[in-house]
């Protein structure tokens, strides 16, 4: 069977996610980001297009590196303000049947027993359609919001996250046996106490003694997404992730990292194909190339340069407000690695070209650091196929210029083309998010979390 | 105008809340407590009855004092398992228009900036219908779940909660000016940075430096419920609460506490009537007294004595598993205060009677420690009127035997009787929860939180 391409909708809980300025396009509903109807409509469009999940980015910081303050982010609505995606899920769950939800939550400002209960609650409400995008928090701005002057050192964050997951697995997988809940009205027995177990954990970061507060949900452990790109992040992903989220401008720029994660997973005894890899992209399909060009040109008129630079500065740690927009970017003037990472987004694609910041803003103001595919459905399907073949990705986290246009265009134009090619499902399979993505409602036996399940069954 | 009686629906996120065993009644849907449809239907019934709010109890502990373990709670489904009410709100918000939500969340296992964002998100989704029932956590069981061997000492908990609220007020009231968000498409300005302010707080318990992550919602600060009954709890309520939740078997048993809270509020410069007082009760209305008696007798056949004692033991700290069910209860055998509090539930009502534990279980197995009113709508309306007059309460947090029967009976039988008497609104007023309950969308000028607003406006 031809390898199927999977799609998630990728969006932040703000007026603007990766396309600063586009909220102001006359057709955009981005200014309504704080209403339930906006999100219900997004979820329904994605479900109509048989997307696997709505993937919601999050973080508790504000981009305040550019100009040394948050003014550009605030003015342009670039990833700010920002509501809490965990609070949103139940409304979308009630209005959909098959769409999954990839919800970002940080191990750095939640307690394991409390967050584990939250995801279990959502897994009940969605009947097994919840995924957790595990993040550990990367910004100083976010750290200051919760009372730490600087973000916890990178590797310490991951050590803490490893232990957080260990505690969560114990709660999700070992506290309640499958046969524990009987709901027997005749005897008045809701659950069998002999099959419900207390979890005790004394570790370096956490120390708990509790029964998991919820009965088992369909997936028990939520489907686990992760996006770490560093070596330590990849080690974490190889152990915990069932899907990873990567990003880069070309297949060649992401292929080595993907191969590394799959190899690390194999070294841990997992099937490297048990990790679904989604890469960031934005697709602007139209009925002709001319129409696509026009559409893109129209969108780009709304790009907000300050908003774009607020994101670039936030991501790289470099204050681009001091830069001449029209001078060629060179690596010598600032921290090499960060400008390198910005330049790589383009130089890999056009290795002989010299870029100015203004050109980068224009080129990359829609969809952030991922590729932007604008063209006919056939053009874009060709691109996606090429990426899958060259980079070994399983699918795409599709960003948008704005809602509704980008996602409705993808659903109405691109999805049918992928289906015609046999590259995309004709309909959802039934069942949980994990079942749809991996064929199993529960963690596979080779996943780190399954070890806690076996311990429980032996008890 | 006759004083209006206000009603909230009071329920926990479990198969059973205050009526152990009743989930197994053939008409009960309690076993579906973990589905969205169950809750959406509850919300719609309450809204049909023009209830002010659905009030959801919560706590992260399990009742494990009875028999020294959680077996009885687990077996009977008594307040266990227990899902997270914060996760539920958006689905109910999308299916209702006027009903408010009183959601319990603890200051002991959340971070102020994170929880403040959660409530702001819910205030956006509900268009100003969210209330926060502030709890500080009272059980050792809950403390162990989050890594503290014993619950934090009572007064320390309240000191921490006071500072938590101070931080939250700063975020809600002072970070964004009313005029900050402009959503001006022509200039591409989402918000005016000069009207968005960083909140710096260095305190004993919290130390933060952040902009509140959400723009102002209709209420800004959620409507504040609180239920502390101790002197320290009352001091907290007098300062922070806009509604308090009390409970007792007779008007005389609660009147002094209510008068004390109102007096404390007045001493702080507030109008004592700006605190709405709700007292716990369960109403079982029927078309005749005989039918009410039959209904109650039918319900009581399902009472689960072990489940009832699991609650009693959890609330009092006394392990009632060692007690002879048929011996008269005396104060000498165990800690006086706790048995006193259990006995008071009955002896105040029938001062000359000696009670056995079995009688208390039968008498109080439905609706917990509040009064149980079973009778015709006129009988129950008389009782409610008498309580309002004698105890100076503003309304009732109505518990139920099970859903749907109790709430539908109240809505179909009792509410029309109260309306006929001019004691109950004919329809909702429009607007926010605070607007409906106090006439103002925002905190009143005399409320502690308003001081932070003024600081901001002066800045």
Automatic annotation (TrEMBL), chains A, B:
One function term, GO molecular function aspect? alkanesulfonate monooxygenase activity
Q: Could you name the domain of life of the organism this protein comes from?
A: Bacteria
Identify the EC number(s).
1.14.14.5
Domain (Luciferase-like) spans 26-389
Q: Which Pfam families match?
A: Bac_luciferase
Q: Does the keyword DNA repair apply?
A: no
Which SUPFAM superfamilies is this protein grouped with?
A: Bacterial luciferase-like
State the top-level EC class. oxidoreductase
- InterPro entries, sorted: Diverse_substr_monoxygenases, Luciferase-like_dom, Luciferase-like_sf, NTA_MOA
List UniProt keywords, sorted A-Z.
Answer: Flavoprotein, FMN, Monooxygenase, Oxidoreductase
The family database entries (PANTHER family) matched by this protein are listed as:
ALKANESULFONATE MONOOXYGENASE-RELATED (PTHR30011), C2H2 FINGER DOMAIN TRANSCRIPTION FACTOR (EUROFUNG)-RELATED (PTHR30011:SF16)
What protein family is recorded? Belongs to the NtaA/SnaA/DszA monooxygenase family.
What protein name is recorded for this chain? Alkanesulfonate monooxygenase
Organism listed in the record: Xanthobacter agilis
